[in-house]
Every structure is written in structure tokens, then in C-alpha cells.
């Protein structure tokens, strides 16, 4: 993720992104644009293994040229940060009980989208804690889908 200086008024980005690049942009302060790239990033087993932004040569390598193409006159990167979140192998949520521990609910593999679904995930967790059957079909999110 990088924050770049924006010299002109912010407009939506109606542009075609290069294949395999998912770039999001949102206006921050008066002259800044926050951009993010979702592509799986650094594969790590523990948070302390994460390298800082720009320590990996590809950080910003696709996003910044793309932005300069669709927003001529954009300034340089003011700040960069590497973010950590859990991805499942198929990038879908995992919502299931922990094998061998049926009283433990696991909600993970949110692939950077969990914040948008916090209300419904909270409802699922609350139903589980209260022993209620969820009002949603959670079959597609079972952990067992990876062993089929």
C-alpha cells in the first residue's frame, strides 16, 4: 500500500487495470490518495516474518506506473506499508468448528475482506456462542472443503 501526492482534484478511476492487479484507491487528506494492491503478497508463516514496504522489489512496481498513466501529474510515494491478513487457498472464508474441538468456532481466511463482513460474522459467532443454528448456510465455508 502506498500514499501518493495528488496534485489535482480526486476523480474516480475509470480505468482498466493490468491483468492480475487489483488496485483500490481512496482519497485521504487534502492532497493524498491511498492505493492498495491485493495479490497475495509475501507468503509468511508468522507476522514477524513480514518485510517492510519497499523491502520487496515488486512493492509498488505495478501500482505506481498504472497510477501515473491514469493520473498524469501524480506525485511520488509519501508513505508505504505492508499489511498482513489471512488468505485461504481458495480466497473464500473459513467458518467452521475446529476439528476435535466442536465447542470452538474458527473464522479465518478472510483474505482482506473481513472488515466489510464484521456485522454478519459477529452474528454468526454470537449464534454459535448461544447454541443457535446460524441463519446462514455455512456449508461453502467448511474447512473440510480442502480435503475433498
UniProtKB/TrEMBL annotation:
Superkingdom field: Bacteria
Cofactor(s) listed: FAD
Example GO molecular function: flavin adenine dinucleotide binding
UniProtKB keywords: FAD, Flavoprotein, Oxidoreductase
Keyword set includes Flavoprotein: yes
Gene Ontology CC annotations of this record: cytosol
EC numbers, comma separated: 1.5.3.-, 1.5.3.1
Domain FAD dependent oxidoreductase residue range list: 23-127
Enzymatic class: oxidoreductase
PANTHER family tied to this protein: FAD DEPENDENT OXIDOREDUCTASE DOMAIN-CONTAINING PROTEIN, PEROXISOMAL SARCOSINE OXIDASE
UniProt name for this protein: Sarcosine oxidase
Organism: Salmonella enterica I
